[in-house]
């Protein structure tokens, strides 16, 4: 615990040093080295200090990566974007408190009750899938991928509850940015990654990677590929931290590079497919390629899940759905 506090203080010192000193260095290479090297060291220490097979380890490492990406954006690529310390700090605090203004029609379109109902449904489904995964051995079947996908999507029920509380306190002036926006409805990979799935990380990647890279490079094709490649490195590191499985490096990178190439091709295709067909092809592509990324997590079996129960799982007042007495192959 004491060591973790020192690492946290190290991140604060690095963030402040970059703001007050590093960003004023005119040489971009030196700025990059002084920004990136301490971030790599701190991220390595965090990964080394946390045990494997723990979701919390993956969460802490993810925050280290996102903080590093923010620093590269604000110190190396666009050092003049945040002239004041408050604006600068808020960029990092947003990773933990993703507060945004409610759209003018938010109350009529999505009332607060909707957030609470969504949270309730997600809790029940999340706990049901989790209990089912606990009794089944790992496999790489399509059904298993779908179960894991549902587990991930329903994990955001706490964010829905917090969003409802924030909207109530602020009288619908502010809300938390939703984690997901019905990704099952995506009719293209660009829509899936850009507007529907994991919007919190997606927002940081768009603001701190895609847009700054587009400003520095004239090519519209390189920026998305670099973003997907960076995402591949992040997810590869998470798999290594959680599972100590170095065989995931190539498949995870292939997954994100493949999706980056597919998104680039989508953007330059001169025709548009029918809505139903584009939806079906998008979902099939996601399902077929998913094992490249989530394969290690669905093949590992009950041990990983037993160490990572979802929030509120032990609460008896939450309704429990009966778990099927079979395991999908």
TrEMBL record:
This is Wax synthase domain-containing protein. Pfam families: MBOAT_2 (PF13813). Keywords: Membrane, Transferase, Transmembrane, Transmembrane helix. It is found in: Membrane. Residues 179-258 form the Wax synthase domain. Belongs to the wax synthase family. One of its GO terms (molecular function) is O-acyltransferase activity. It comes from Adineta steineri. It is a multi-pass membrane protein. Pathway: Secondary metabolite biosynthesis. The chain crosses the membrane at residues 5-22, 28-47, 59-77, 146-169, 222-243, 249-269, 276-298. GO terms for biological process: lipid metabolic process. GO terms for cellular component: membrane. The keyword Cell cycle does not apply.
């Amino acid at each position: 615990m004491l060591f973790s506090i020192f690492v946290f203080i190290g991140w604060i010192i690095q963030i402040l040093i970059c703001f007050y000193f590093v960003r004023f260095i005119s040489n971009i290479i030196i700025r990059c080295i002084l920004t990136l090297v301490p971030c790599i060291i701190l991220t390595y220490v965090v990964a080394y200090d946390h045990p494997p097979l723990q979701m919390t380890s993956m969460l802490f490492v993810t925050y280290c990566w996102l903080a590093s990406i923010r620093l590269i954006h604000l110190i190396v690529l666009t050092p003049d974007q945040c002239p004041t310390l408050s604006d600068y700090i808020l960029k990092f605090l947003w990773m933990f408190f993703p507060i945004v203004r409610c759209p003018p029609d938010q109350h009529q379109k999505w009332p607060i009750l909707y957030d609470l109902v969504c949270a309730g449904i997600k809790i029940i489904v999340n706990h049901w899938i989790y209990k089912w995964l606990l009794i089944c051995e790992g496999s790489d079947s399509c059904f298993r991928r779908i179960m894991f996908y549902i587990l991930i999507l329903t994990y955001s029920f706490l964010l829905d509850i917090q969003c409802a509380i924030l909207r109530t306190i602020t009288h619908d002036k502010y809300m938390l940015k939703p984690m997901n926006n019905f990704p099952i409805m995506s009719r293209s990979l660009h829509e899936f990654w850009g507007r529907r799935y994991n919007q919190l990380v997606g927002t940081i990647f768009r603001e701190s990677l895609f847009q700054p890279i587009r400003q520095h490079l004239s090519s519209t094709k390189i920026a998305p590929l670099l973003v997907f490649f960076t995402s591949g490195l992040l997810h590869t590191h998470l798999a290594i931290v959680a599972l100590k499985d170095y065989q995931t490096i190539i498949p995870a990178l292939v997954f994100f590079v493949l999706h980056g190439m597919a998104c680039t091709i989508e953007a330059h295709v001169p025709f548009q497919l029918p809505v139903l067909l584009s939806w079906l092809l998008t979902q099939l592509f996601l399902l077929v390629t998913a094992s490249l990324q989530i394969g290690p997590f669905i093949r590992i079996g009950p041990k990983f899940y037993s160490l990572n129960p979802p929030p509120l799982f032990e609460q008896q007042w939450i309704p429990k759905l009966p778990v099927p007495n079979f395991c999908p192959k």
